[in-house]
Amino acid sequence: MEWRSLSGEERSRLQYTISHFKEIARQNRFAENGSIEHDVSRCVVCHADLVPWNPFITYLEVVTPSVLVRRPRLDQDLVDEINGDLSMLGEDHRVSIQLLRSGDAPSTQCWREWIQTALATGLGLLSIHSPTSLELDLDEAREDGMGDAIDVKILEIMREQLGSDGI
Ligand SMILES: [Zn+2]
Questions:
Q1: In angstroms, what is the span from residue 38 Cα to ligand 1's centroid?
Q2: Distance between CA 123 and CA 6 in Å, rounded?
């Protein structure tokens, strides 16, 4: 995910696409992202070959900021979402802001899994973006050696959500 390796034009297309999807996330319309008008000729989700990266990396780069638009910080809303997921999975553990801030290991693992699910959901929604968008699966990508790239993005989101307090 070396932006420096991109040409000015490639960078601008990637930036355009990220901004487009952030706006969709802000409007909470990710589920209908395919029906929202945009410049298809500059969209790296419609045309993954506009950027010389593995398409999975490109899509991950697009989805990550959108997750942060929906959940920018470690607050009660995020805690409620994580606990909602745990409840649905039949887990007894519950997280709190305090536990997550203190680095409690089981709670941090739940947080990590919540982010991973959010990224996976976002990727799933990009696959129905347009007739030319690619169907990429996070779990399959992890098995195909993309685990480090995924973990970098998960950490990036955690750091952002923690804010200036650091991990
Ligand atoms: Zn597009």
A1: 7
A2: 22
Q: How many CB atoms lie within 10 A of CB 77?
A: 12
Ligand 1: distance of its center to the CA of 51 in Å?
13
Rounded Cα–Cα distance for residues 164 and 162 (Å): 7
d(CA 81, CA 40): 33
Instruction: Give me ligand 1 centre to Cα 13, in Å.
Output: 11
The pTM for the full model equals 0.94
How far away, in angstroms, is 26 Cα from ligand 1 center? Answer: 17
How large is the greatest C-alpha to C-alpha distance in the chain, in angstroms?
Answer: 50
- pLDDT higher than 80, residue 91: yes
Angle formed by the axes of helices 55-70 and 105-127, to 10°? 120
Which residues of 9-162 form beta strands (DSSP E)? none
